[in-house]
Amino acid sequence: MALTEPQPLALPAGDGSAAFEPLGVLSRPVRPKQKWRTWLFTVDHKRIGVMYGTAAIFFFVIGGCEALLIRAQLWSPRGTLLSAETYNQVFTMHGTTMVFLVVMPVGAAFANYLMPLQIGARDVAFPRINAFSFWCFLAGGLFLQTSWLFGGGADGGWFNYAPNSGVVFSPGHGIDYWNLGLIIAGVASLTGAINLIVTVLNLRCPGMDLFKMPIFTWMTLVTQFLLLFAIPVLTCAQFLLMFDRLFHANFFNVQSGGNPLLWENLFWVFGHPEVYLMILPAFGLVSEMLPVFARKPIFGYSFIVWSGIAIGFMGWGVWAHHMFVSGIGPISVTTFSLTTMFIAVPTGVKILNWTATLWGGKLHFTSPMLFSIGLITMFTIGGLSGVTHSIAPADTQQHDTYYIVAHFHYVLFGGAFFGFMGAFYFYWPKVFGYLLNERLGKTNFWVMLLGFNLTFAPMHVLGLQGMSRRIYTYDGGYGFDFWNKVCTIGAFILAFSVAMFIFNIFYSKVKAKSLPPPGPDPWDARTIEWMTPSPTPEWNYDPIPTVTRLDEFWYRKYADTEDHRLVRIHSLEEVAQHSDGEGVHLPSPSYWPIIAAFSLPIIAYGLIYTLWLCLVGGLVLTVAIFGWALEPPDAPGGGHGDEHGPDDAHGEAGELESGASGSDTADETSGAEAGADAKEVETVG
Amino acid sequence: MPTDLSDHAEAIPTNVLDGAVEEYPREKLYVWVAIFLAAVTWIEVMTYLKPGWFGNVDTRIATLLFLMAIKFFTVAYVFMHLKFDRKMLTVIFYSGLGLAVVVYVAILTMLNVWYPGHPHP
Amino acid sequence: MAEISMALRDEFSPHAHIDHDTNTGISNTKLGMWVFLASECLLFGGLITTYLLYKTPVAGEGPSPKQVYDLGFTSVSSFLLLMSSLTMVLAVAAIERGDHHRLRTWLAATALLGSTFVAGQVYEFTAFVHEGMGYTTSRSSSAFYTLTGFHGVHVTVGIIMLVSLLILSLRGKLPEHRAETVEVVGLYWHFVDVVWIVIFGVVYLIP
């Protein structure tokens, strides 16, 4: 690690004595001896992104096993693999795990790893809060999964409607685990949202105006705003449920006038923006990959950006389309039916723009490209079935059938997850320093495409034929048998394709030892993150680039001639960064985020079992927060939690000396220092 | 430089303040604003001490909502410096506030809260 | 004055940490706090909505909140909280001028007013419980106590932050160039006050 320590640590671990006694009790774990500690206490956004991704894949396997159990149970009528009660738990936990612990964290993984790189920053605005967000998510996710060990999972569906979710109808603790686990995960999402929004707004490199940002960064920004506003609504609903279940409040107590529609409304006000925030990162990633493999710029950059913003806005006006059959009355139904139809428009704009990007391009069908095209096609199918749901009378037949299950799996798996798979293949060399095997990758795609369609396409038919969802079995003689078998076979093929992916990871890693390293830019890409060495060094950029236009990196390599041909003007050697991080100052690791995060499940267990644990957890949390707030900042320029942007040039130590090509930062260095000195004069006296 | 409430208290230079584009008020202005808020609160209190001053129930409700908004925005603009800081902060805060108002009023409308007893819309 | 400022400046604190380093010209912390406050609108909005839905209990489940309110008492404590916003902004102005003595005075005043408010709420709720409106009595009581309770917890957290700032300042660790910290805590405090303005109007006053 190329950290410089211009200031001595205040405690014996350092050398010399400090002129100043910081209030922090523990020194920051600056140079841990064991490697695992570097992961536990890291505040580096890249490592946090990798941890999010790894955790998500772990939870994906759990959720996938739950899916296989469902499909196995539904292989034939009157299946006996799972009892009705167990089945309810399995499908609830499958949905909850996939939504909150897989799709959202993969989005977070890419947002964390990629977005600071795309805007030319060294890290996010609040690195310790970033670490806290991850550990909080992991703590909440693990806490939720322990419900299986302590009496069974939640069993009211991933949306857990009231009053079914109350203690009268669900006396076990499963729903408490669901509730508290998701509140904890919600804290993670909310703090992450604040962090990433401030990062995008405040830490862009010189020249990176908002409309020169890559599309993935834009989609991330919209996603974080959606999270920022949607999570509190869910948290509110969950606190109401928690108080009902644990303290006998009357929010959903029907005898006391509790209104089940309150839960439905609050949940879906969260739930609809939720699905947009699951798909937008994948949309952003695909918008990065398609231009690279079509060798053309993205078609209609501003249309794609504005339609993303439009989706973010309009997503707030459609929630009650999940409630068409809940008795909300004809005026509400009509209103939301119309708004839902309208929201197809901005998504359609994106699909058209992506298609136009491909049109006339020099197409290279690599694995990332295949998965991206997969997203476009599969999401279109899912979107079309979505439009059919928007027509309320039709939805009345479709609701609670497998037709809906088909729709959301097409958009979530065929859409978001295919996009993520493509992005895994695309960004793997940048993150880990080796390429995933292409032949395996392509096979992976086709097997996944086959398995996916075999699993979910027949569900459209089953749904329209009347097969109900969320029911542990069905009777023979309704004509459901054949297609259910097809679905189950498809599910196992899909599982096999996931196994292929995991195998590819390890296989490629082994093979990479005998292959040349991929270098910074294996795909000949367009955006500045491909300038850095692979894997990305800890300090990201050295020096921080100055951006003059969209697709900055591409136009450093190529120029357009007058007769519209592309001409290479610089070799990769010339434009890639050969940085050594000399003099770069990075935020120091910290103990407190992980300690604070894991105090939360302690409180949660306490709420379920014994309030003494709440006390313990509360004490740990309080100590952690104070320790964090009073922690010695790492050095001048580092703050109590905030990392001051790309040019850490202020400070007496003047630690940012970019020895090599200094033109980018030299001006900023002197400028900022001059500004800093001038400011000092003004604030004094 | 001691703080004082007199007229010749100096303004704090904008460029040492965080995100400010206009001078922050002097302490004296803050005190006047607080007195204004106290007066508005007094009127609010009168709506239940002297309801007769305000006509029927609907006027009272309208008055209270209006006074509440005045207090809300005064604190936000003056004490929280929204008026004197960069507009981005106002935009961010209003998006949250506006979204909350629209969404929750919609929910309450769907749940038929405004005219209980009337037929469901 | 210069010497005092220099002595209070510590190498471990950031200086010149605002404006020029961020794209928006607003520090990360201040921007972050406003973003957080925007999200809090959604949280309190949900709780207020719940209260509005459940304003009246079903028959036989105890008094409605309106029947037990002591508007005079609540008006006084609301007024105190409102005035604490004044003392808060005076504290911020004080540190921006480098007047640490007044900073501490106004911080202490704000914390005191806030604590009085919380104490008043505790007293009020105890009285309500004696009059037959407990937490689990009815849907309106649950909604009322949850809404005001959430607010009270926010106020308490604010008081803890204010006292922490006060202690930091007393130990010389809150120098002038960290005025931003006080301002950001101030923003939180004002927001908590502003939420109470809405709660007081919507929950207590509106007939």
Structure in words:
The complex is a heterotrimer of chains A (685), B (121) and C (207). Chain A has 2 domains: 38-512, Cytochrome c oxidase-like, subunit I domain (Cytochrome C Oxidase, Chain A); 598-630, no CATH class. In chain A, 61% of the residues lie in helices and 1% in strands. Chain A contains 19 helices and 2 strands. In chain A, helix 3 packs parallel to helix 12 (402-432). The longest helix of chain A has 35 residues, at 84-118. The model of chain A is unreliable at 1-24 and 635-685 (pLDDT under 50). By secondary structure, chain B is mainly alpha-helical. Chain B has 2 domains: 1-85, no CATH class; 87-121. In chain B, 58% of the residues lie in helices and 0% in strands. Chain B has 3 helices and no strands. In chain B, helix 1 packs antiparallel against helix 2. The longest helix of chain B is centred in the C-terminal third of the chain and has 24 residues, at 87-110. Chain C has 207 residues and is an all-alpha fold. Chain C is 74% helix and 0% strand. Chain C contains 7 helices and no strands. Chain C has helices at 2-8, 28-53, 65-68, 71-97, 100-130, 139-170, 179-205. Mean pLDDT of chain C is 88; it is low at 1-20. Chains in contact: A-B, A-C, B-C. Chains A and C meet through helix 5, helix 6 and helix 19 of A and helix 1, helix 2 and helix 6 of C.
Specify the structural class of chain C.
Answer: mainly alpha
Structural class of chain B: mainly alpha
Total number of domains of chain B = 2
* Total DSSP helices of chain B: 3
* Radius of gyration of chain C, in angstroms, nearest whole number: 20 Å
Q: Overall 3D geometry of chain B?
A: flat
- Sheet-strand content of chain B, in percent, reads under 5%
